[in-house]
Amino acid sequence: MHRNQSSQIGSFLLVSLIGSGLGGCGVLPAGGDMTTGSVAQNAKVVQTPTRADRECLARAMYFESNRTDEEGMLAVGTVVMNRLDSPKYPGSVCEVVGQKRQFANGVLSKPVRDQDRARIEKVADLLLAGERHKEVGPALHFHTAGYTFPYTNMHYVALAGGNQFYEKTDREGYLPAVLPHAVVQTASGKLVPIQMATLADAPDSFATGTPRPRMPSIQATQVAYGLSLPQGVPTRYSSAPAQ
């Protein structure tokens, strides 16, 4: 178990939040084909995203954030994709979004207004092409902005789209190691990053090598909610702790 010593934090007892169910996908086998794209040895292998997964991703962003705020939708979508990277969550976008008590009630069944479709599908395509909300980073959790909780293991990292995003520290006060991005296995057996397997479904304007839309800063959201992020960052594991 290795720790990044760039910052220090005292040890203290933390209360664990409710965890999510384990997904059924594994990690890359030793000696797997690593020749296609940038693929980490311990990356989670997931199902190739489909148009149904694109719809599930769009719906999660639509019903969990301020619908007029593309930056806020990108933040929620980043959490969905981070969960897809994690072995603690299922192996497809729709399974992640459809987990019980994780996202808004009716997220996969309530109607979406026709006038909002172009916006949410654009952000979904950005995410499937590899875009992420930089401030959210590897965070797996969020809640409505302005709420407070008694837990001491919630390290807040971003405010966007009416939500506060956070990571959980462990009992010693350390943040988890950053997980490698999930990969998919092609028909030929090669393991490739998700964005390489889904570029054909993305709009031409988001193709590799084409500048993508610049997302706005989260500063305006922080001011609007009268909230601020904590100063300092807890020490992060450089690799996953031994079980």
**Principal-axis shape:** globular
Structural domain count? 1
Largest sheet: 3 strands, antiparallel
Q: Flag low-confidence runs.
A: 1-36, 199-225
**Main β-sheet, spatial strand arrangement:** 1-3-2
The SS-based structural class is: alpha+beta
N-to-C CA distance: 10 Å
Q: What count of helical segments does DSSP give?
A: 6
Please, what is the average pLDDT? 76
Helix percentage: 10-25%
Q: Please provide the count of β strands.
A: 5
Strand content bin: 5-15%
Rg calculated over all Cα atoms = 18 Å
Would you list the SSEs in sequence order as H and E?
HHHHEEEEEHH
At a glance:
One of its GO terms (molecular function) is hydrolase activity. With 243 residues, the chain is α+β, with helices and mostly antiparallel strands. It contains 6 helices and 5 strands.
Characteristic key phrases:
243 residues; alpha+beta; 3-stranded antiparallel β-sheet; two-stranded antiparallel ribbon; 24% helix; globular; disordered N terminus
List the helices and strands and how they pair.
Blueprint (H helix, E strand, L loop, with lengths): L50 H14 L5 H16 L7 H5 L19 H12 L12 E4 L9 E7 L2 E6 L14 E3 L5 E3 H5 L20 H7 L18
Antiparallel strand pairs: 1-3, 2-3, 4-5
What does this 3D model show about the protein?
With 243 residues, the chain is of the alpha+beta class. It has one domain (51-225). Helix content is 24%, strand content 9%. The protein has 6 helices and 5 strands. The protein has helices at residues 51-64, 70-85, 93-97, 117-128, 194-198, 219-225, and strands at residues 141-144, 154-160, 163-168, 183-185, 191-193. The strands form 2 sheets. It has a 3-stranded antiparallel β-sheet. Strand 4 and strand 5 form a beta hairpin. The radius of gyration is 18 Å and the shape is globular. The termini are close together. The model is unreliable at 1-36 and 199-225 (pLDDT under 50).
